[in-house]
Write a structure and sequence with these properties.
With 288 residues, the protein is of the alpha/beta class. It is built from nine helices and eight strands. The longest helix has 24 residues, at 93-116. It binds manganese (II) ion (MN) (3 copies).
């Protein structure tokens, strides 16, 4: 589908492909976005830009503009936080090295999980979990799959209850870098750092204000105001936070897979008034 040049832009700056935990391949994701009327899309896979090339190729000639994106994991006061990077230079050597480091963190965690579960005597556990993850870094659901397959537990739910869930041996946290470091990677690569889905961390209002202030001090410039499945109360709260900290407002569906009624590419609640859109500050600003 070609998007008419004069139509109002439909902007979605947060979604996932098979390059991380999404269900659609990057090219299929772009095709779906174009079909849903999205005019500007940022693919923001977890800690990788491996899908960008294929997404960009699919976007060429589709009428959809692809903006470089990524969703990075980091730590703030021992809580895992997600920071979305937008419109950075994709071939920046420092940035690519940082992404390689994030990937190594994931593998280290996978090796630790396998090690903690070694007493279960499942042959080739890490290799099999890696296969379950399609050759990528396995997470706990992949280990759970192998435990079922190996007959250790009857169901995935049991695998979590006994071996992988909170407080169990396989509940290993990844060693993510601190928030300011991750923000600086994005800024150094010419991008804009955006605090992802602020209400998802279940922080108190006071802690969320502290996080936002620290994020701003670290060089962060944007905050996701309009995200899928958010109540109007949360929308208003985050909009107020954006105004107070003078952060540019971003929006995105956080789409992972088709079929979820609360989440579709390009289906985004209108942003409250009085906010400065992050896309006015892209290298090629979007007029909207
Ligand atoms: Mn995800
Ligand atoms: Mn996230
Ligand atoms: Mn996400």
């Amino acid at each position: 589908m070609t998007i008419p040049q004069d139509s109002t832009p439909c902007i979605d700056l947060h979604c996932h492909s098979t390059a991380s935990d999404g269900a659609l391949a990057p090219d299929d994701l772009v095709a779906r976005a174009a079909d849903k009327g999205v005019s500007h899309l940022a693919l923001t896979d977890h800690d990788t830009i491996a899908g960008l090339q294929l997404a960009r190729a699919a976007a060429t000639g589709s009428g959809l503009s692809l903006i470089s994106g990524v969703e990075l994991s980091c730590v703030w006061r021992s809580q895992t936080i997600h920071v979305v990077g937008l419109d950075f230079h994709e071939s920046d050597p420092g940035f690519l090295a940082a992404l390689a480091g994030q990937n190594e963190n994931r593998w280290q965690r996978a090796r630790m999980i396998a090690d903690k579960l070694s007493r279960l005597k499942v042959e080739r556990l890490l290799e099999r979990a890696t296969e379950a993850a399609g050759g990528d870094v396995p997470g706990r659901p992949h280990f759970a799959e192998v435990l079922v397959e190996a007959g250790v537990v009857p169901k995935v739910a049991h695998a979590f209850k006994r071996h992988l869930g909170a407080g169990k041996p396989g509940d290993v946290k990844a060693c993510w870098p601190e928030l300011p470091e991750v923000v600086q990677w994005i800024v150094a690569a010419g991008g804009i750092a955006v605090l992802a889905h602020p209400r998802k961390y279940r922080l108190t209002a006071t802690r969320l204000r502290a996080l936002t202030a620290d994020f701003r001090r670290a060089g962060g410039q944007g905050i996701e105001v309009s995200v899928s499945g958010q109540s109007s109360g949360d929308l208003g709260f985050v909009a107020e936070l954006a105004r107070r900290e003078q952060l540019w407002a971003s929006q995105g569906s956080d789409f992972h897979f088709p079929g979820a009624p609360w989440c579709e590419l390009g289906r985004i609640t209108k942003m409250p008034d009085g906010l400065e859109p992050v896309w006015h500050h892209f290298r090629q600003p979007i007029e909207a």
